[in-house]
Write a structure and sequence with these properties.
The protein is α/β, with parallel strands linked by helices and 455 residues long. It has three domains: 88 residues, Rossmann fold; 209 residues, UDP-N-acetylmuramoyl-L-alanine:D-glutamate ligase, CATH 3.40.1190; 137 residues, Alpha-Beta Complex (Protein-Tyrosine Phosphatase, Chain A), CATH 3.90.190.20. The protein is built from 15 helices and 23 strands. Belongs to the MurCDEF family. Mpl subfamily.
Length: 455
């Protein structure tokens, strides 16, 4: 079978491509921007890539076309598929039909923490000999790849609430049919897709409806939005995580940065996690991963031990370099809640040392100004904030300068930010760069500038 993928270089669609290749299919694909690292990974798999959407890519004609959710009507390749009545489907539907329908699916959903929690869960299963398949919206350091088929029935997947395709506006995760479901948290996001929070809740409840009665739903305790989703109806076993009285799983930090914590299951101490990660949010993610792995048959001591060797996902508080005592981090945070938890976690780690937050508010939701009132509250424990003002912004970042209790500086490009930082950085400072995009390679530019100055 020849599978052709439109929009192949995104993490999800690239993972689909890798899985299809592993299943023995001939795989080709195209994207507007074919660039590393995904292009390199795909080429190493022997997958032929086309730049752009010229219709010549359909020669020879594929057996089926998988259309990514970034593809829209008017795209030449999409119009060609429709006009010639070629067989087509969405990525999530193809994944269900060709792989997930026969697997024990462990799905991780929620506004925040999906990638990290999915990676933790996959690693616990791997470290305990279960050799799972997985599809993750990032590259976990323990594996070095974002997707694989696996050798056992277990398949771990990051369950994204984004829509499936232009012809299927259901969330991707509705197609996954999990037996083990993690519901981490729920806030309004993706304003380009959803009209309001209730619209997202409806999709999450569609997901809950797909879990069998002998399956398990793991949810955050005392999380009002998720509670309202479960109140719509839940026909599966439920367990809760957090510090509420009804919680099955709890954690007690042994260090302020949560790099060491006790795991408590049904009121009894189950063990102690010691790892390289920091932050209360990661401690919470770990509990979710432990609970999900336990449902799949992993003992608590083994799950807890496995996290001791877990390496975080790329772009999650990833240290890009240390030059002359200045540490530069890269993080994917782009929602006010994620920005706050990321900065708070770093503050707990570094104490009174200076934290300089650098942010590119580039997500569609951020460009629309949906979170502008929360954004200035998200960085209050940083010492100063430097913002790139992106193009196509529908509101003024000047509002954030006026509403912030810590100094905020605005820039038109990454070079201006680097130049300004170079006038003030000192040994012991921490530069936390946050964006869900490439941010014009600002990390490399800053590290190069620091190295030149130090030399």
């Amino acid at each position: 079978m020849h599978v052709h993928i439109l929009g192949i270089c995104g993490t999800f669609m690239g993972g689909i491509a890798a899985i299809a290749k592993s299943l023995g299919y001939t795989v080709t694909g195209s994207d507007r921007n074919v660039y590393p690292p995904m292009s390199t990974q795909l080429e190493e798999l022997g997958i032929a890539l086309s730049e752009g959407y010229d219709v010549s890519q359909f020669d020879p004609e594929p057996d089926i076309v998988i259309i990514g959710n970034a593809m829209a009507r008017g795209n030449p390749a999409v119009e060609y598929v429709l006009d010639r009545n070629l067989a087509y489907t969405s990525g999530p539907q193809w994944l269900l039909d060709h792989l997930l329908k026969d697997r024990w699916v462990l799905a991780v959903a929620g506004t925040h923490g999906k990638t990290s929690t999915t990676s933790m869960l996959a690693w616990i299963l791997e470290a305990t000999g279960l050799e799972p398949g997985f599809l993750i919206g990032g590259v976990p350091e323990n594996f070095g790849i974002s997707a694989r088929i696996g050798k056992t029935p277990y398949f771990v997947i990051e369950a994204d609430e984004y829509d499936s395709a232009f012809f299927d506006k259901r969330s991707k995760f509705v197609h996954y049919r999990p037996r083990t479901l993690v519901l981490n948290n729920l806030e309004f996001d993706h304003a380009d897709i959803f009209d309001d929070l209730d619209a997202i809740k409806k999709q999450f409840h569609h997901l809950v409806r797909t879990v069998p009665s002998n399956g398990l739903v793991l949810a955050t305790a005392a999380e009002a939005n998720m509670e309202s989703v479960l109140e719509m109806g839940c026909w599966s076993q439920k367990q809760f995580i957090g510090n509420a009285q009804k919680a099955t799983w709890q954690a007690k930090p042994l260090k302020s940065d949560c790099s060491n914590f006790t795991v408590i299951h049904e009121g009894k101490t189950a063990g102690e996690v010691q790892w390289d990660l920091i932050g209360e949010h990661n401690m919470h993610n770990a509990l979710m991963a432990i609970g999900a792995a336990h449902h799949a048959g992993v003992s608590l001591p083994d799950a807890i031990s496995a996290l001791g060797t877990f390496k975080n996902v790329k772009r999650r508080m990833e240290i890009k370099g240390v030059v002359n005592g200045v540490t530069v981090y890269d993080d994917f945070a782009h929602h006010p809640t994620a920005i706050k938890t990321t900065i708070d976690g770093l503050r707990n780690k570094v104490g009174n040392q200076k934290i300089i937050a650098v942010l590119e508010p580039r997500s569609n939701t951020m460009r629309m100004g949906v979170h502008k009132n929360q954004l200035s509250q998200s960085w209050q424990v940083a010492d100063e904030v430097h913002l790139l003002e992106p193009s196509q912004l529908t509101w003024s970042l000047q509002e954030l300068v006026q509403n912030s209790k810590v100094p905020v500086y605005l820039y038109k490009n990454a070079e201006q930010i680097v130049a300004q930082l170079m006038t003030k950085l000192k040994p012991g400072d921490h530069v936390l760069i946050m964006s869900n995009g490439g941010f014009d390679s600002i990390h490399k530019k800053l590290l190069n500038a620091l190295a030149e100055k130090h030399a």
